[in-house]
């Protein structure tokens, strides 16, 4: 387990304790793709897990980089992406040590921020800022649990706290937020697209 993790993600993958995984495609991802908000570009998926969205991005012509510290997750992504003639980079690494070769146009954060211990959030948002080029966009899913609950592999991303964390000097928020999407855990996720200033 890497030092920046309170949860042993690899153990969870091996034991099948993966309650955060969606059986299908995230509805917010589908909406962003179909309304033209998310179009082919150089994109990073941090804490990709075994999610299917990186494959869909690669198949749609995005230049995709996925990073995760769990070997099982990276093996799953490698297995899906390596046989295809697509632009994809699959990297095993700790997000707090991994360096982007060049800034990205977009980051797709699906339950990665919320999976980190809240005391790491300021450092993580600093890294998101560094990974994105100016005017690059963060496509984020903020997990909405309603309260902080012990024992879950993710944390409540209170929206007022998110506005402070992703403050106005570094990030531009949209005038309004789209509807929340259901999560298989029974909670919801708040999709939001933030622009790095
Ligand atoms: C809640 S899961 C979400 C996975 C995936 N995005 C999805 O939607 O299924 C969080 C993921 O972040 C990864 N992760 C957590 N801390 C990490 C770190 N410090 N560096 C790299 N990956 C990390 C875990 O291994 C896990 O795959």
Automatic annotation (TrEMBL):
Keywords: Methyltransferase, S-adenosyl-L-methionine, Transferase. Gene3D superfamilies: Vaccinia Virus protein VP39 (3.40.50.150). One of its GO terms (molecular function) is thiopurine S-methyltransferase activity. The keyword Isomerase does not apply. PROSITE patterns: SAM_MT_TPMT. InterPro entries: SAM-dependent_MTases_sf (IPR029063), TPMT (IPR008854). GO terms for biological process: methylation. PANTHER family: THIOPURINE S-METHYLTRANSFERASE. This is TPMT family class I SAM-dependent methyltransferase. It comes from Limobrevibacterium gyesilva. The lineage of its organism: Bacteria, Pseudomonadati, Pseudomonadota, Alphaproteobacteria, Acetobacterales.
